[in-house]
Amino acid sequence: MRLAGAHAAVRRIWTVELRARAGGPSLVCPHCVARTRPLKAASARSAALAHLACHARTDALPGHLRTCQCRARGCSWHPRHRGCDGPVLLALTRDRTGRVWRLADTCAACAAATSSTAVVPDTLLGPRPPRPAARTTRPACSARPLGPAERTRVREMLTYLATALPRFTSPAARLLALQCALRCDTHGQARLPAGLLHGMRLRGHREMWEELAQAGWLVLPDLRPTPVTVQLLDATVLGQPAGRRARHRAAHWALRPAPLLLPPAAPLALRLTALVLAAHSSAHTEHGTDMDVLARLCGHSPQQTGELFDRLVATLTLKAWSHNRETDEVVWQLAPAMEATQSLTALQTPGTAV
Ligand SMILES: [Zn+2]
Ligand SMILES: [Zn+2]
Ligand SMILES: [Zn+2]
Predict the structure, then answer these.
(1) Domain extent for 193
(2) pTM of this prediction?
(3) Rounded (10°) angle between helices 148-164 and 268-279
């Protein structure tokens, strides 16, 4: 008899369902039926995520005891499989109807192979923020160059937003949501300076704000005063632990995501694609990620995403890219000029992150 057997059986799956009711949708959780109550329609989606996050926080388990729940069910959550691989993470999956949400311990490989699934970053669900006393002992990090930490944080937030936002959210709205999520304070308020919106070529555009408001992700802000003050409704983003300074740095990096730099006037769909690739690029010359993952983050079909990669090659941002249809892996190489930029930015120290 294996003693570890008892641990291997630990079930780490939580689901909630949003049920339509006369007084607005209500949240049904099999773990805590008593707390079911009607919700405001706009906030239903984020309430579901926040509820699941709460369970994951409460039922915390040491890392070495966590196992891939997908594998425990014969990998029935996804079509193809190359075997469990990578760390066990919390994966958030939305079903086809968009009403049932599942949060489960899943290995990185299974999470990547499952559709409508995002890895929920530790920075969103992790333990509560460290005490201020502990923070003051940390060395100041403002002199550190923007790089791997910011890239990871942006990748995590893009991954989260790919699931939290409706599937057909436009590239403009995705880029805007990313800035808001990374810049918001503990009350879920983000202030976007006029210069930032202008630099992103988003100033004066009302439609992407309306898109995010319709998705129940934020309250439609008054766009006349500057900076624009936005109130976010996504309870998961709102519950982010401290580290606002680090998030600001990530927001700053996302505006010029080295090594994939495009002219500011480049179309938004192309800029989002470059950002997604930059967030998945490392110090190596060749970079690879599943097409399914990249397409989901770009908010396009795999075919459209491939066309956008072609345009990055045409603008000399990428040297080449290829898609292995058997494994679904996309491999890309940066254009030589971009490789040079990468080594340059690694040496640079940033100005103040605004
Ligand atoms: Zn519950
Ligand atoms: Zn699996
Ligand atoms: Zn697995």
Answers:
(1) 148-255
(2) 0.69
(3) 120
- Residue-wise DSSP of 152-167: HHHHHHHHHHHHHS-T
Alpha carbons within 13 angstroms on the beta-carbon side of residue 95 total 10
Is cis: bond before 259, omega within 30 of 0?
A: yes
AA identity, residue 152: T
Residue 40 and residue 69 in one domain: yes
pLDDT for 169-197, tens place per residue? 999 999 999 999 999 988 889 999 888 88
Whether residue 341 has pLDDT greater than 70? no
Farthest-apart Cα atoms in the chain, separation? 69
Question: For residue 250, how far is its CA from the centre of ligand 1 (angstroms)?
Answer: 32
Chain centroid to CA 27: how far?
23
Residues 17 and 107 in one domain: yes
Only one residue has tokens 């995403």, namely 305
CA nearest to 17, candidates 73, 116, 117, 98 = 98
SS3 105: strand
- In angstroms, what is the span from residue 60 Cα to ligand 1's centroid? 14
Instruction: Give the number of the ligand closest to the Cα of residue 52.
Output: 1
Please compute the mean of the pLDDT values over residues 132-144 and round it to a whole number: 40
Q: Phi and psi (nearest 5°) for 229?
A: -100, 125
The yes-or-no verdict on residue 346 having pLDDT over 60 is no
Confidence (pLDDT) at 138 = 39
> Ligand 3 center to residue 113 CA distance, Å?
9
> Which residues are CB-contacts of 241 (< 8 A; sequence separation ≥ 6)?
123, 126, 127, 128, 129
Measured between its terminal Cα atoms, the distance across the chain in Å is 58
Amino acid of residue 340 = A
Is position 168 within any domain? yes
